[in-house]
Structure formats: C-alpha cells, structure tokens
C-alpha cells in the first residue's frame, strides 16, 4: 500500500492591498490535510479569512503543497488558566511568568517598549532573551510558524478531558505554542490576539506549559503580540527553518 501523503495548506488575507504593498493584515492560517480532505481544509481557511473581525479582506492567497519531509509527533503543553479582571493584572502575571522562565525584568520591560512597533506583523518576532534585541530580519512580515496540526478527534478528546471548549482558536494557539516550545532554543513565548473581540493571551514554555491569561488587552483593541524569546547563541537559520518547515503533528496520550 502507498503511504498516505500530507499537504500543507496556508492562507493569508489583507485589506487595502497585499501585505507586501502595505495592506493591513486581516487573517492567516495553516493546516495539514490529506488529499481527500483538501476541499474542506481550503474552504475552512477561506471562511476564516472572509469572516474576520479585523475587517473585509480585498486580497487573499490560499495555497497547498505536498509535504515530502518526515513528520515528528509532539505532545501538547499542559494548560493552566490564570483568571484576571484587569489588563494591568494580566500583565503582572505575564511579568511573573516570563521571569520564572529566566528572563530578566529589565529585558521584559525593554521588549514591552517595542511591542507597538511589532504589532502590525502577520507573523511572530524573534527576540534574544538575554538582550531583548530583535534577531530576525523579516520586518513587518515576521516569522509564520507553519506545517503543524492536531487531529480533530484527538483534540476533541483533549478538550473534553481538560474542560476546554472544542474551539479552533485554542487549538491553533496550543498547536503553535507546543511546536515552538519543543525547540531547545526557545525560552518562552508571549502572545495575545490582534482580533478586537478576543482578549485572552498566554505565556508558554516547556517548563511553565501553556499559561492562559484571561485579559491582556481591552475589547476593541486591534494590537496583537507574538514574541518568541530565544537563546541568541544558537543558529537562527536552523531555528527559523524548524518553525517554518518542520512538519509536526500534535498528539495527546490519554
Ligand atoms: N506563526 C507566527 N505568528 C503567528 C501565527 C503563526 N502561524 N499565527 C498568528 N501569528 C501572530 C500574528 O502576528 C498575529 O497577528 C498574532 O500572532 C495573533 O494571532 O484562549 O488568536 O491568531 O487559549 O489573532 C491566544 C489565546 C489567542 C487562546 C491568540 O492569535 C486561548 C490568537 P491570532
Ligand atoms: Mg488574528
């Protein structure tokens, strides 16, 4: 029997022109699909981009491509929810978590001062955890983590066991955070959405797991954040290659 082939499916959508011509980022998405499921995978991403709270796109690209490289299987990070009532309390939790991941307070403050500058990116920003300096040269593009997914049934089992809603947003974020944190150069990740209707964000690392924080911005705010704190002494090219190209399936063992 022929071995089953998998396809990487990606989407990006923007408004007022393409991203590379200064258009506003509306939505992006990535999935892995079998050949038989491609129609659904493409149409799910199409819908994600069309029905977006950041606005109506006037540019969208959806593409799929067969994956030749072997997959690795990664466990989802453990999940913890930190309930807060104000944005300020939310950021105090971020500070405490990032410090316990080994990042000095003055570095965290330095990075916070840059966040508005990074917030229009459609990908993530890579920062040296010792200096707070940005390491990648992707400007407003950032690094888009890709080639990762989680089987629908296995995710539903995980969601039920962890008292989490069976929603694609949590799934997508946990898939990404689990992939990123599995790389030995990753120290921690800080993220909150750029969608105006979603205020929960997280800090993630191998040691801390996926630490949700229920309020990191006010409703209506379209400024998001995704920063990977890394050990800047390791090879950045191979780190970025892992994020963009290494095929990963998340798998939860009951
Ligand atoms: N690779 C790199 N960066 C990405 C990717 C990706 N695949 N997807 C999104 N980003 C960046 C990009 O700059 C976005 O603007 C920003 O992150 C926010 O993306 O309740 O929904 O998809 O546990 O809006 C976290 C909490 C939600 C979920 C995060 O982010 C929960 C979220 P969004
Ligand atoms: Mg978004």
- Would you count the extended β strands for me? 12
Shape: globular
Bound molecules: pimeloyl-AMP, magnesium ion
The parts where pLDDT drops under 50 for at least 5 residues are none
Largest sheet: 6 strands, mixed
Short recap of the structure:
The chain has 254 residues and is an alpha/beta fold. 30% of the residues lie in helices and 27% in strands.
Structural account:
It is a single chain. The chain is an alpha/beta fold. It has two domains: 6-68, no CATH class; 73-250, no CATH class. It has six helices and twelve strands. It has helices at 38-50, 87-100, 105-118, 152-161, 168-181, 236-245; strands spanning 6-15, 24-34, 59-66, 72-74, 79-82, 125-128, 148-150, 186-192, 201-205, 209-213, 225-230, 248-250. A six-stranded mixed β-sheet has the order 5-10-9-8-11-6, sandwiched between helices. It is globular and about 55 Å long. The model has no long low-confidence stretch (mean pLDDT 97). The site of pimeloyl-AMP (WAQ) has 25 residues, from strand 2, helix 5 and strand 9.
Question: What secondary-structure arrangement, pairings included, does this model have?
Answer:
Layout: E1 6-15, E2 24-34, H1 38-50, E3 59-66, E4 72-74, E5 79-82, H2 87-100, H3 105-118, E6 125-128, E7 148-150, H4 152-161, H5 168-181, E8 186-192, E9 201-205, E10 209-213, E11 225-230, H6 236-245, E12 248-250
Parallel strand pairs: 4-12, 5-10, 6-11, 7-12
Antiparallel strand pairs: 1-2, 1-3, 8-9, 8-11, 9-10
